[in-house]
Task: inverse folding
């Protein structure tokens, strides 16, 4: 597979990766474990890539960015009630960094490192919280493929930034997926234990009620 085809495949995978999360949020209404800050920084980073693509005359970059903004903004809107002032302030700081980088000629380098800013908040939230029912696992399974294709493309053209993107995204996906499945299994075990306790308590009451009824009957016969 040549580099051009690999780039097209990687771009398609990247766009598909953005769909499962807003679809899950819209379908279930559950936002537990989903980082609003990650959604905000993702939109800002995508906007940055759009600007860079237009400035550098790279149609593939800005075209993919335009499409990516649609699910990105959708996710931000769905998480609007979970967004805090601190999230907005942090996102504003990231925007400031991008603007400053563009002024001093480091825009591309900062955007390449943006994967740390866009994935970091979600990784931290998935580690800190025990209820991750709002996270769409499909997003992170596709992220594994996204990381592999962009990383392979980076190797093919000798681009360290793309290789770094692949590594960071792969590690992020591994952490989030492991946390999602660990918390789900833990909650399932807890639910089974609670159900067993409730059934046992109900049986105990039934047995006790039977004993009491028997004793009352014996006393009446006496």
Result:
């Amino acid at each position: 597979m040549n580099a051009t085809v690999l780039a097209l495949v990687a771009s398609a995978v990247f766009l598909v990766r953005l769909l499962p999360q807003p679809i899950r949020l819209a379908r279930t209404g559950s936002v537990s474990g989903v980082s609003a800050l990650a959604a905000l920084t993702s939109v800002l980073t995508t906007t940055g890539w759009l600007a860079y693509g237009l400035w550098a005359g790279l149609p593939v970059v800005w075209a993919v960015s335009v499409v990516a903004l649609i699910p990105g903004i959708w996710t931000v809107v769905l998480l609007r009630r979970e967004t805090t002032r601190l999230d907005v302030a942090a996102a504003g700081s990231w925007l400031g960094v991008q603007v400053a980088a563009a002024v001093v000629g480091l825009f591309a380098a900062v955007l390449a490192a943006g994967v740390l800013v866009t994935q970091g908040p979600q990784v931290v939230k998935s580690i800190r919280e025990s209820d991750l029912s709002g996270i769409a696992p499909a997003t992170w399974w596709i992220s594994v493929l996204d990381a592999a294709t962009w990383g392979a493309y980076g190797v093919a053209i000798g681009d360290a930034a793309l290789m770094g993107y692949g590594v960071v995204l792969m590690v992020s996906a591994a952490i989030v997926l492991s946390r999602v499945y660990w918390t789900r299994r833990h909650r399932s075990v807890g639910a089974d234990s609670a159900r067993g306790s409730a059934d046992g308590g109900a049986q105990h009451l039934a047995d006790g009620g039977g004993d009491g009824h028997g004793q009352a009957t014996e006393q009446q016969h006496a």
Observations:
- The first helix runs from residue 3 to 17.
